[in-house]
Structures are given as C-alpha cells and as structure tokens.
C-alpha cells in the first residue's frame, strides 16, 4: 500500500509539473494567428508547436493577437536545417505605419555546414539602419534555442539562450528617438531572400530541397499586465556585461557603429552610448 501511494504521489507531481510547463510555454492557438502562406504555417500538438514552411509557391508567417507596449518575450526556434541558403527566418516586434518602430531578429540561412548569420536591427519612428550581425556559438538547426527580446523604457536587449548579444540603450539624451509610444505585435515569417541573404546574394535557394521548415515552441511573454514587473527596470549586471563583451568580441561580424565607410562624417549619435562597457 505504501508503495502504491508513493507511485500515485509521483504521478500527481509529474502531472502538476507538466501542467505548469504547458501553462508557462503558452499556446499558439491562444496567442497567434497564422496570417500568411495558405497551409504552409501549421499549429500542432494542441498548440504547443508551430511550424512555418517555404517552397517555390509561397513562404508563411504568423503574428500575435496581442499588442505590447514594452514586454519581455521568449521564443524557442529551431531553424531550417541542411541547405538553407537563400532562406530568411524572421522573428520581430513591429508597430504599424510609415513611422513605425521595430525590433528585429533575422536568421539568414546558408549551405549545409556553413554558418547562419543572426541579423539584428532597431527602428524608431521609421528609421532603422542600425544593423548588428553575429555568428552563433552552436548549430541553430540541430535543436531549439531561446531567443529573447527585452524592451523596456530604458533599453532593448537581445538575448540568445539567456546570453545578451546586443544592447540598445534609450538614446533620447543624445537627441535620437526611442520606441516608447507605439504598441507592437510579434511577427514571424519564413521567406525566400536569395537576392541578398546568403553571401550577399551569391548563393541561391536550392528548390530541390524544398519545403524548408522552421519550428517554434515555448512562447512566453512578460507584459505590463503581469504581476512581476521587475523586467521593466531590468539591466545588465556585471556578469551579463562580461557575456555581452564575449559575444561581441568573438561572434559579432558586423556593427554599423564601426562601419567607417558607411559613416565617413561620423557615427550616428546613439553609437556613443551603446559601446560595450
Ligand atoms: C486572429 O484570429 C482571431 C480568431 O482566433 C480573429 O478574430 C482575428 O480577426 C484574427 N486576426 C487576424 C489579424 O487575422
Ligand atoms: C555563409 O557561409 C559563408 C562561408 O563560410 C560565410 O562567409 C557567410 O557569412 C555565411 N552566412 C551567410 C548568411 O551568408
Ligand atoms: C520577478 O522576476 C524576476 C525575474 O524576471 C525574478 O528574479 C524575481 O524573483 C521575481 N520576483 C518575484 C516576487 O516573483
């Protein structure tokens, strides 16, 4: 009898842990609409998994039902495996209209065994041109990894598996606009960009490999509606700043703030306040 109740207790705890994990992971039916690519975007496993596909006829995409004015969002992505050259997977926040704000993750595919590029950008009031690009320290197609955007009134931080890769501090003190008034939705898409994505457009999409598929799971959002708003003041502690420096030293392959050819008259004002400490 004693061992029976032990077994039921273990089962009950396992059940409780699983329910909590499902609740934490969100549900794609609840949070997102597949809005592009008839049939190529699919929500699976009772809402726990979402896949986007691309073939010669179409790409696909989804968007959040909610809009956010500041948030911290996590998503786990597993990118298109094998020969993904020419494909681009995007995951970003954006508002609407000509003076929109936008915070971008874009994953530029590559030939088998060649590295993806993680491209980031920040738009405020319609102005972007703030690219930073990175290689990753793992194969993003072998497994799911967590990509996080923290957007609070003081700063935007991009994280990969909890490691900060880029910080964009609010530059209003140097006369540059910051996203803070326009609510944004979450968007994601998988599309063909072989005119520019891989080695600047030199390597084209190999359609014999289609359909290309990227997968998503465990979406989680912290919003101002939540009851723990510590993320609204979150900043990088000294350990995280060391991690950021490590990424920028070893994995950053492009930074607009050091592109002298592009800015012969001097760098944009926000570059001064966004140097890694
Ligand atoms: C998203 O789906 C809901 C129903 O779940 C619908 O009411 C809404 O109009 C859809 N939004 C878009 C942008 O397609
Ligand atoms: C693809 O691989 C080539 C060769 O290693 C590299 O130069 C390039 O940065 C990689 N990524 C993309 C998206 O082109
Ligand atoms: C609030 O969230 C942060 C992480 O975002 C956590 O460290 C902290 O313990 C949480 N506080 C409470 C009261 O739950």
What form results from the Cα inertia axes? Answer: globular
Task: Give the helix proportion (percent range).
Answer: 10-25%
Summarize the main sheet: 8 strands, antiparallel
Q: Tell me the series of helices and strands, N- to C-terminal.
A: HHEEEEEEEEEEEEEEHEH
What structural category characterises the helix and strand content? alpha+beta
Give the strand order of the largest sheet, numbering strands 1, 2, ... along the chain: 1-4-13-6-7-8-9-15
Number of strands: 15
Average pLDDT taken over every residue: 92
Oligomer: single chain
Give unreliable regions as ranges.
10-24
Based on CA atoms alone, the radius of gyration comes out at 20 Å
What does this structure look like?
This is Xyloglucan endotransglucosylase/hydrolase. It is found in: Secreted, Cell wall; Secreted, Extracellular space, Apoplast. Residues 22-216 form the GH16 domain. Glycans are attached at residue 110. Belongs to the glycosyl hydrolase 16 family. XTH group 1 subfamily. The protein is an alpha+beta fold. It has one domain (2-273): Jelly Rolls (Sandwich), CATH 2.60.120. Helices cover 16% and strands 35% of the residues. The chain is built from 4 helices and 15 strands. The chain has helices at residues 2-25, 28-31, 238-250, 270-273; strands spanning 32-36, 41-44, 49-54, 60-64, 71-78, 87-94, 102-108, 117-123, 132-134, 145-151, 155-160, 163-169, 185-192, 212-223, 252-255. The strands form 2 sheets. An 8-stranded antiparallel sheet has the order 1-4-13-6-7-8-9-15. A hairpin with a 2-residue loop joins strand 11 (155-160) and strand 12. The radius of gyration is 20 Å and the shape is globular. Bound molecules: 2-acetamido-2-deoxy-beta-D-glucopyranose (3 copies). One 2-acetamido-2-deoxy-beta-D-glucopyranose binds next to loops. One 2-acetamido-2-deoxy-beta-D-glucopyranose is lined by residues 108, 110, 114-115, 117, 197-199.
């Amino acid at each position: 009898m004693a061992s029976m109740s032990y077994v039921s207790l273990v089962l009950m705890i396992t059940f409780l842990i699983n329910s909590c994990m499902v609740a934490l992971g969100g549900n794609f039916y609840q949070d997102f609409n597949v809005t592009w690519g008839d049939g190529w975007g699919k929500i699976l496993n009772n809402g726990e998994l979402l896949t986007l596909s691309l073939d010669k006829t179409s790409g696909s995409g989804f968007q959040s039902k909610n809009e956010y004015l500041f948030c911290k969002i996590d998503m786990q992505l597993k990118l298109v495996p094998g020969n993904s050259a020419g494909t681009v997977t995007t995951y970003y926040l954006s508002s609407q209209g000509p003076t929109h704000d936008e915070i971008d993750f874009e994953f530029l595919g590559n030939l088998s065994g060649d590295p993806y590029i993680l491209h980031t950008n920040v738009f405020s009031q319609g102005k972007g041109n703030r690219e930073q690009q990175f290689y990753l320290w793992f194969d993003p197609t072998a497994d799911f990894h967590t990509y996080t955007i923290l957007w609070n009134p003081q700063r935007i931080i991009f994280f990969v598996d909890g490691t900060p890769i880029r910080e964009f501090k609010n530059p209003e003190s140097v006369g540059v606009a910051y996203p803070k008034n326009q609510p944004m939705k979450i968007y994601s898409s998988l599309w063909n960009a072989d005119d520019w994505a891989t080695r600047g457009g030199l390597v084209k999409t190999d359609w014999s490999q289609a359909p290309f598929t990227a997968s998503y799971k465990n979406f989680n959002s912290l919003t101002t509606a939540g009851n723990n708003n510590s993320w609204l003041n979150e900043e990088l502690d000294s350990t995280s700043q060391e991690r950021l420096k490590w990424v920028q030293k070893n994995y950053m392959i492009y930074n607009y703030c050091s592109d002298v050819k592009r800015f012969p008259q001097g760098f944009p004002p926000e570059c001064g306040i966004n140097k890694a400490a």
